[in-house]
Amino acid sequence: MATTPAGPAIRVGDLRMNYGRHEVLRGVDLEIRRGEVVALLGPNGAGKTTTIEILEGFRTRSAGEVEVLGEDPEHGDERWRAELGVVLQSWRDHATWRVRELLAHLGAYYAPYATASHPRPHPVDDLIATVGLTASANTRVGALSGGQRRRLDVAIGIVGRPSLLFLDEPTAGFDPHARREFHELVHRLVDDDATTVLLTTHDLAEAEILADRILILAGGRIVADGTADALARQVAGRAEVRWRIGEEKFVRPTDDATAFVRDLLTGPDGAGVVDLEVRRTSLEDTYLEMIRRHEHGDAAAAALEPAVAS
Amino acid sequence: MQPLRLGLARGWVTWRSVNTTREGLANTIIWNALPLVFLLIFRNATIPGTDISVGVSLLPGMLAMLVVFSVMGTAYYLAAEREDGTLLRAKAVPRGTAAYVVGLLTVAVLDVAAAVAIVLVPGLFIVPGVPLGDAGMWLGLVGYILLGLMACVPLGVLIGSVVRSPRVIGGLGFFGITGLAAISGLFYPIAVLWDWVQWVVQILPLYWLGLGMRSVFLPAEAAALESGGTWNTPLTIGILAAWAVIGFVLGPVLLRRMARRESGAAVAERRRQALQRV
User: Fold this and answer.
1) Domain residues of chain A, as ranges?
2) How many domains does one find in chain B?
3) What is the tens place of the pLDDT at every residue in B108-149?
4) Residue A234: helix, strand or coil by DSSP?
5) Cys staple from A157: which of A87, B103, B109, B174, with CB 3.0 to 4.6 Å?
6) How far is it, in rounded angstroms, from Cα A86 to Cα B92?
7) Which residues form the ABC transporter domain (chain A) (predicted)?
């Protein structure tokens, strides 16, 4: 194999992308280890899809270093391609084909890249069962529901047993039940095959559930990088204390909620304090704060000081 | 060999799966059976001043037209499958694009084969005077269909790579080819048309494919009705082959350029635009 199993799955340095004079990516740096599940978060237009498409080899970057499974995606050969699984945002293809037919056909492309230790493709019926489409195996693809269609997309993405899987907003348009089933599916896949996964999402809860690590892309740069817990902890120093005295409501941000509350209760108005509430900054608050700063044109500040929330 | 094998397989499954939907089957049968109506109407007429049946003089033109419709069919498939993400899907699997192209050509060939069968089989019973027992007729028929496909299908790839909208291709393509057929000498001699129209028509493959087909179906004396009074077989083959060369050289270049630019964001954007139009 052309890839070096020891190196990281993805290494990106100072990646830049311009469309005309519009800069979408302004120096993205990231590294993803093999077997890691990483979520790329960010508002619409932040460049998530552009980043993923550059990594998949579907888009030519303006500048920067990119290495995916040891190869530059712009020069990746078919053997390299066989190691990738791709689930893009909107696919309506092969509407007249039947589920099993399509999966068997697309799996056949990977057969020449099978080795004794890494058989390819997945047995089709097992895979159909894994994504819960057994009852629909002979249904035409165009007749599937949105959630079924998405599960088929995922099945197609993994039919060649990729070592690296890209999922671009895999659960957009899902109802909560379908979303939960999808999360279980991804967990199962990752546990079984130690697949490296890079997914984009709008949904923080989803990122928290699925990913070992979260990257936030805003203003064309990675502005935060860490586990969901670590990101929340970066701003956990900041908490919000709310209380009421009589009819008057108070809200105060603080770095040390415990000391603040102690002082508040032992202070002159302590006896009148009711409805006391201490709120830790959540991942969502962190995220929204970073996005807010970016939208106020303060991307540099968002990148430099992710730990401070006002 | 793998892209060839998988390409033939995907062409066959695509064609079969489209033609086993009610809509697809209806499209295939209704559009292709339309010429049969004209054959039925004119089955007993003869060309004035000769004893050649009108039906047998129309049949080759109809077959030529069906072959030339593969330009539109191929371009339409390519544009539509680019819009719905099929092409991108092919790009995402190893050696998928090569197999996709083989599949596209396979579907075009199957479409033409079905269309020709739908017209020719009943046509042979409707129209008197087809030289059924003549091996040369069958050889010529198959030969011109293959030459026509080689001239037309790459042209369809070329157009489908440049024109983005399948709706534009479907609309303009249908009226364009139907209109062209009306002035390409398929149904009356082009000598009655203005000189400049004759010139334009004689650059395009449809006129020559029609001429070639007539030389196969009609008796030798019918050549007197053609421009110059001969079948002009060498020039017919030469011009169709020239179109094939143009298509086979430029088609893959434009297709590769288009496929290289294909990405998920592009598919999503076209989907958004397509939905807005509805």
Assistant:
1) 10-230, 237-304
2) 1
3) 999 999 999 999 999 888 888 788 888 889 999 999 999 999
4) helix
5) A87
6) 7
7) 10-244
